[in-house]
Amino acid sequence: MKQMKTKVLTLIFLYILPCSLFSFDWPVPNGRVVKNFGQNGKGIPERGMLFLYEDSVFPADTGEVLFVGSNTTGKRFSSPLGNWIAIQHQDSLIGIYSHLSEFNSNSVPSLVEKSMSIAKAGTSGWATQPQIQFSVFDRKTSGYVNPQLLINMIDQQAPLIRQTILANRDGQKIVLGQLKSVRQGTYRVYIDANDGAAFFGNNQVAPYQFTLFVNGMLQGELELDLLAAKNGSLQVGLRKSQKSNQVYQIDGTYFVGEIQLNRGKVLCEVVVSDAAGNQKSQTYQFIVE
Amino acid sequence: MAKKKIFIWLGSAFAVSLAYLFIAAKPITSEFTLQKEWSINLDDKNPPNDEVAANSDNLIPFFIGNHYGYIAPNGTLMAKKSIQNNQLISITPKIVSVWNPIPDTLTIESAVPDQTITIKDPMGYPYLVDDRIFLIGKDQDSVALINNGGNTEWSYAVGSPITALDCRADRLLIGTLDGTIYLLSLKGELLFTFQPGGSRLSVIAGGALSSDGNYIAVISGIDRQRFILLEKASQTYKVLHHQFLDSDFRRPVLVQFVQNNQYVLFEGKTNALVFDIHKRKIHEVPLNAPLLAIETIAQSNLVFMLTGKDLQKQLIVLRLPDRKLITAPFVSRESFIYTAGNHIILGSDSVIASYLVGK
Fold first, then answer.
1. ipTM value
2. Model pTM?
3. Within its chain, how far is the Cα of A275 from the centroid?
4. B252 neighbourhood in chain A, CB within 8 Å
């Protein structure tokens, strides 16, 4: 009887956990993401999900309107977010809905529900075509969190590793797989990788996690789960935070770590995974001279 | 006996009246006048006067409708240009920039067009203050200072979207969505940071710096909203006064120091609130529409407020702390106010007029 009770409780818990974890929904029905969280745009990480879309926008969850900004916020400065609404959702999470079309701020009620349209997507601010940028700010971690971790999405497509690049201290670059031998020394490792899913249309977006192993040893890790400012500079990653201007390269690659290569055979493995857990790994074997 | 009583009563009444006159009477203040000096209709085809443009100081910048430019203090239109519907603008008496929603380059021109600064591949929008150029990052969570060569001197990330900005006394005040204020030097150093708290939800709805940099005024939080005044104390700032407000604004709120930093003026629920810093007393001035702009005349206790909702606008002249001298309603789609010397300039749709403020 006790065992039965435990099983029932476990089942209830397993049912409730994903429900509470994924209580957020995407703010646009059937939207297609053209840029996702952490995506490298000319060396700048994307703070949220960018949907090309021109219809009604809905709150990701029930909540309370925290701030409504207009294209010219308080007439003091032009707002790159354009017309935007920030909604305080559950658990210290704030949903930020930006680039909206013009709306009467008095028409937005203080309390909003998922089924309630808050505005239409638009072209205000840093935008040239109808879109909505959806970001989630977490008060607890004082940073933007990856919305893909909060919302259930179907993705069975593994990421694509385009290339892995070693750069020595002189800035000389070596594309792994093209050479059979490299010189001994310290190298910075950059990965060029993308992710794709039906949810992203045909667009290549950022993966979620990069891991680098050299001869079976973990040498570098980058997780695109949090973007937070510390001492005036933007940092990426919750567990191991790194300066975003070091991670994000203008050429679109991501810096994942620095390695010391000594003489001998080297087996380098790069593992890239997306937020749904799909993984792609690539191994490179070469000799260090 | 009865007669004597009447005389005593009458005498007492006279004495009380006399005493009242001496004690309560105030001298009649001089009459306040606004005398129209000039007006310009931007729809007229009068070409701007380039000769004046090359020599003028104290230019009056304007941006109204799709027109922007400069007017000389004598009312000569010096420059009139147009922007496209999707373009954005920042204009000060010294510099101006007009840009596309996603600009490839930014051009900052001086008011007297002899100098141009180009910023290549800017990842944000300019915020111009006097002759200083800041760049607000495209995600609205960072500010950079741009030098005269168009290069970034420094950049500072604040982590959540900027909701309030003010630059005075070589300091930059930033308020953010997560309820934090940051005070930066113009070298990009963090001088002070503060999270007001005290409300159920924290957010910075408005913030202002005094012209000497000694005070910071903040409107923060929701449920309940607070007014906080911070005063400089050695290397930091300390709370001088805080007050819960009736308002619950979930939008930007105008805040400004006026009359040589003796007062802070900000928007209340249905009024303008004037906080007397020395007496720590708040005065209320009823308003029937949101506060759109505040302008002051230096060394004067006059404040000009523009209020409005939809097409119904009002110019209100206030003698500090709380005496309304004029309430002038007018109908206008777009309007602005600006003060230059002892003139108030009022823009309403395509007409800009200057009035001499007199007593």
1. 0.90
2. 0.90
3. 9
4. 69-70, 73-74, 76
